[in-house]
Amino acid sequence: MIKLFVTDIDGTLMPAGGRVSEKNIAAVQAMRRAGIEVAIATGRMYRAALPVAAQLKVPVPIIAYNGALIKSSAGEVLHTRYLDAPDALRLMNFFEERGWHLQSYVDDVLYVPERNDCAKYYEDAQKVEAVEVGWSGLRERVEGITKLLSIADTPDETAARLAELESIFGGQVEVTRSAPRFVEFMARGVSKASAIKILADKLNVDTAQVMAIGDSDNDLAMLTGVGVGVAMGNAVPAVKAACKLITDTCDNDGFAAAVYDYALSSPPFN
Questions:
Q1: Could you tell me if residue 97 is left (phi over 0), alpha (psi between -120 and 50 degrees) or otherwise beta?
Q2: What angle do CA 20, 25, 29 make, to 5 degrees?
């Protein structure tokens, strides 16, 4: 029996830049009526995830920053884990030397060295406003960083950078690709999967009773680390390959289909 259902946001619960559909909202509320806890797990900032959670019209825990923060939609902090300052400084120096964009998150505030096209792209997509502080300003704020995020101009450029970054920093910090142009860095051991384990323990739920759904590379660990992982129809190939269950696409309300087909069905799946 599923007791906790964890969902990614962008490309899963709703299209990037869109709103949660009425079908998906109804599916969340149906789970809550059935006694299933529902949580959000996202790479987004908490304040960028909160308006999405509000659309669901039920209280939900929010796993933000790919697992570095767990906070209820009512504002209660359940868990935090920050990047070590020396690791953050090494990453900042590396990116500045190459002239690559990098942005930082401290106390749910987005800091950028300059408000260039990459920063503006992120602001538009996430409906947040960045604070421009220069590279020196980033380095002055290395305590309490939940994550760093880089943005490349193209998916191919992102893939090339990711390989280099994993080879250099992979043993020191968590490195993950969360979108075609995004690479993110968290403290070693931080992931959506590790945060789900922490949340499940707080709710007295065994991970075998957790179902998770997602579409991107940063969802892989949580989809394979819970009892049941569901891939969206629009998921990247690696996610589809890792999941036995694949639902419809985000545009076709695949989230709601997964809820009714797997989480609320009896038996829940074959």
A1: alpha
A2: 155
Return d(Cα 263, Cα 257) in angstroms, integer.
10
Q: Which residue has the tokens 């505030």?
A: 109
In tens, the pLDDT along 175-199 reads 998 888 999 999 999 999 999 999 9
Strand partners, 10: 14
| Residue 267 binned pLDDT confidence (cut-offs 50, 70, 90) | low
Structure tokens at 154: 């193209």
Higher pLDDT among residues 91 and 180, named by residue: 91
Structure tokens of 118? Answer: 């990459």
Instruction: Report the Cα 130 to chain-centroid distance in Å.
Output: 19
